[in-house]
Amino acid sequence: MEDQVAESSYSKSYQWYVMVILALVVLPFLQQTMWKAHMKPISDESRLVNLYLMTGVLFINILLVIKVVRALDKREIAS
């Protein structure tokens, strides 16, 4: 029983590390890449799609940061 609890807490902490890495490294890089693609002279449809993608990435980024901050607050309260 204790092994299952330890394993589940380990997998949860691993998931949070992956989310932090996504929020801090991968998504801003993706956002920067989309911004560079947005600055090139392209058709209006492609520009609109890039704008929607950038907005979506920014929204996901904000949600992940909020989730990570809440998780860190819960850990501080629990310890």
TrEMBL record:
<keyword id="KW-0472">Membrane</keyword>
<keyword id="KW-1133">Transmembrane helix</keyword>
<feature type="transmembrane region" description="Helical">
    <location>
        <begin position="14"/>
        <end position="30"/>
    </location>
</feature>
<protein>
    <submittedName>
        <fullName>Uncharacterized protein</fullName>
    </submittedName>
</protein>
<feature type="transmembrane region" description="Helical">
    <location>
        <begin position="51"/>
        <end position="69"/>
    </location>
</feature>
<keyword id="KW-0812">Transmembrane</keyword>
